[in-house]
Amino acid sequence: MSQLPPPKSPNNSAVETRHVVMPDHANHYGTAFGGAIMSWIDLIAVMAAQRHCGREAVTASIDRINFISPIQIGDYVHLKAMVNYVGKTSMEVGVQVNKENPYTGESLRATTAYLSFVALDGNKKPTPVPELILETPTEIRRYEEGKLRIETAKELARKIKDSRM
Ligand SMILES: CC(C)(COP(=O)(O)OP(=O)(O)OC[C@H]1O[C@@H](n2cnc3c(N)ncnc32)[C@H](O)[C@@H]1OP(=O)(O)O)[C@@H](O)C(=O)NCCC(=O)NCCS
């Protein structure tokens, strides 16, 4: 039986990366296509989740994605992903996406997203994840907000199910 890795802080598994928006990432308005941004978000978020749990993790849901401002062709897309909250086998990852001027470095929030991942064992079954060590007020706030989002989503799913009975 495999051993559960020790608790980790969100910083231990955080991932940061940049992409350049090329013409084939653009929509017909000449700005970055939401689907391209979503793909980069899913990719970086799963890396943070897998670094936290130390094993395979799959996307269970994309819980929220806010497109705040459009990104132009040629801009850098700066993504940061961090585990906000963990349940028993699931992890909520928050992703901040900034658009960055490649010449001046000027940076502006373009998108935010929250995704849920589930850790899988060798039989592809959900398996427990390490606890989160919360070290800063920001990490505590993100944890509490993540918990609220997950509990609210479960409550909504329950209400929808009940309304169908
Ligand atoms: C995600 C998946 C592993 C969950 O399996 P399951 O047997 O339904 O899981 P369970 O009901 O035992 O729940 C396990 C955990 O997943 C969470 N979970 C299940 N479905 C979820 C969903 N849609 N959104 C968020 N969390 C979810 C549960 O809340 C639970 O969390 P907890 O242990 O922290 O309390 C399964 O649905 C799956 O394999 N989905 C396909 C994943 C995939 O192909 N993703 C795209 C490519 S990576």
Automatic annotation (TrEMBL):
What's a BP term from Gene Ontology annotated to this protein? acyl-CoA metabolic process
Q: Where is the HotDog ACOT-type domain?
A: 11-123
Record's keyword terms, sorted? Hydrolase
- Give the matching PROSITE patterns: HOTDOG_ACOT
- One GO cellular component term noted in the UniProt record for this chain: cytoplasm
Which Pfam families does the UniProt record give? 4HBT
Would you say which domain of life the source belongs to? Answer: Bacteria
CDD domains attached to this UniProt entry: BFIT_BACH (cd03442)
Q: Which GO terms describe its molecular function?
A: long-chain fatty acyl-CoA hydrolase activity
Q: Which family does it belong to?
A: Belongs to the acyl coenzyme A hydrolase family.
Stated name of the protein: Acyl-CoA thioesterase
